[in-house]
Amino acid sequence: PPRRGRSLGLKLSPLTIYTTNMSKRTPLIAGNWKMNKTATDGIELVKAISAAVGIDPNVNIVLCPPFTALSAVGAAIEGSHLALGAQNLHDKTNGAFTGEISASMLRDLHVTHVIIGHSERRSIFGEDDAFVNRKVHAALGATLRPILCVGELLAEREANQTMEVVRRQVEKGLEGVPAAKADHVIIAYEPVWAIGTGKTATPAMAQEVHAFIRKLLTQQFGAESAARILILYGGSMKPDNADALLAEQDIDGGLIGGASLEAKSFVELVRSASKSVAG
């Protein structure tokens, strides 16, 4: 389908892109490039991914390049099955916030998704739950789909605090979000101890937390809305573990870091997600 925004005009909200047939929760594979890839590098990567995946109705794909590559990558994915995401945003609409970028600025670049509350933003840049929550509201107010990241540190898991941490981050992150907008939110569970370490939660471990998150969403928004919300796994999903993770009932795709920087590995993850539906 044509990309919303560029082809059909910005009056059509990008929030409708992924809401068709949501009873099956069409899986989503999102690539978080972090601070990697120039605009030129990004174009080459996008071309390779687009050529390999074509248009697959069984899976949706979002690419989240650095701010400097958003415009170039956005142009490169025009007319493809790929959507454009950003890695962060500020909660204010404008002002004296040197180095920051607002939701409206992202929308002007035809961005449809934005990662919020990534563990690196929380740990390195000191973002707390209240700030993350304001960002979620800023994204929803600008018709962006927030990908809200939650997850525990290694010390918290070893202290059996995983569910406590996840509960706090989900509830605080979504505080004040009306039920009418619940379907627009995406959750990404990222066990911090599994990011960039080569470690990963077993499928059973990941499913346990994903099911718990869906229970929290049910309590906040009701069973019908919770059943439609995507919950991604963001802890070192790779081609060799993707099939098993994506086979779990409440794992609806992946927020992919390192494996999204190379077309071959990223395309393999997309195919795993497609296979989890088709199979």
Task: Name its key features.
single chain; alpha/beta; 13% strand; 279 residues; 8 strands; disordered N terminus; globular
Straight-line N-to-C gap: 23 Å
- Low confidence ranges: 1-23
Q: Provide the spatial order of strands within the biggest beta sheet.
A: 7-6-5-4-3-2-1-8
What oligomerization state is this entry in?
Answer: single chain
Tertiary shape: globular
- Based on CA atoms alone, the radius of gyration comes out at 17 Å
Averaged pLDDT: 91
Briefly note the structural class of the backbone: alpha/beta
Range of helix content: 25-40%
Give the SSE order as H and E letters.
EHEHEHEHHEHHEHHEHEH
Number of strands: 8
Task: Please give a structural write-up.
There is one protein chain. Helices cover 39% and strands 13% of the residues. α1 runs parallel beside α2 and α7 (162-173) packs parallel to α8 (203-221). It contains 11 helices and 8 strands. It has helices at residues 39-53, 70-76, 103-108, 119-125, 129-141, 154-158, 162-173, 203-221, 223-226, 242-246, 263-278, and strands at residues 28-32, 60-64, 82-86, 113-116, 145-150, 186-189, 231-233, 253-256. It is of the alpha/beta class and 279 residues long. The model is unreliable at 1-23 (pLDDT under 50). It is globular and about 45 Å long.
